[in-house]
Amino acid sequence: MDNLKFEEPILALEQRIRSLSESGGDRPEVKEEIRELRKELTELTRKIYSELNAWDVVQVARHKDRPHTVDYLSLVFDEFVELHGDKFFGDDRAIRTGFAKLDDIKVLVVGHQKGRTYQERSECYFGCAHPEGYRKAMSKMRLAAKYGLPVICLIDTPGAYPGIGAEERGQAQVIAENMFEMSRLETPIVCVVIGEGGSGGALGIGVGDRVAMLEFSYYSVISPEGCAGILWKSAEHASKAANALRFTSKDLEKFGIVDAAIPEPLGGAHRDHHQTASRLKAYLLKSLRELAGVPTEQLLAERYEKFRRMGQFLTVEPAEA
User: Taking Cα atoms as reference points, which of 83, 75, 60, 42 lies closest to residue 5?
Assistant: First the structure.
């Protein structure tokens, strides 16, 4: 996806500013025009991004220039040392794991990786992990708990890999086991959806003491295309499904599914990787410092209650005829 349709007015203004800068940006009258255009660009971008619907948010979450896990590894963390393999089958490149430092805090980082070039995307299956990826993640999380290191999970996947091989190797079982094991892992866990948070593929590394989303990410039981295929028998209705699923950060924060929506820079994370990374880092540090002094028994009890609350519902007695 090169350009987003709703961004066309923004791109047109940006092109106008570039053209003026290149043709005569030193002349006073041109400088003044550029200043006015930049003010107009800021106002237009703010207006457009404040009115995005759910399907627009999906497009932003999938933008080709949006920062991925490997980008945050260099922008947010120091001294990342990658850990490989699940000791059973192989090393799934759709999930990256390793030790790192977040300022002065030693952590274990687990994250989905999509890749940018076609070769990179093929190697990591477009961010769709196999069972060995989730086993690798759980193995390294246990190692972190053993040494008293908090775990940070960066979620960015359309879903777990749907192929026959993955199913034969127990995809559903290993995701369920990860969710169970993370619910009782004796170390703080902070999970952040940085792009797509699709189905069990996201939940496989998504159980934590704090769960947050970047502002223009989505977190859903199913992709919009998958939902549209089931309900309307065609992916052409994906935008209708997206609006019905209520999976944006605003919706999920209101429903109590996520603890926070991390604001993105004006125009989305794809426009400013460094500012996005700075805001993500601030949230991670704040969360880890809040969790650092919590006794393990209390930490696990609160984590359990956090996810139990998501299953609340109301029972209403039928009105008498």
Answer: 60
Among 52, 102, 82, smallest CA distance to 216 is for 52
- DSSP structure class, residue 216: T
pLDDT at 321 (0 to 100): 56
Number of structural domains the chain divides into = 2
Indicate whether 75 and 194 sit together in one domain: yes
Which residues constitute the domain of residue 77?
58-310
Residue 103 is assigned to a structural domain of this protein: yes
CA 79/CA 82 separation, integer angstroms? 10
Q: CA–CA separation, 143 vs 137, rounded Å?
A: 10
- % of the chain at pLDDT higher than 90: 77
What's the length of the chain? 321
The DSSP symbol for 309 reads G
Query: Per-residue confidence at 4, pLDDT binned at 50, 70, 90?
Result: confident
Report helix, strand or coil for 80: strand
Same domain? 256 vs 144: yes
pTM of the model: 0.91
For the segment 16-32, the average pLDDT, to the nearest whole number, is 80
Average pLDDT score over residue span 137-163: 95
What lies within 8 Å, CB to CB, of 208 at 6+ separation is 151, 153, 182, 189, 190, 191, 303
In a domain, 318, yes or no: no
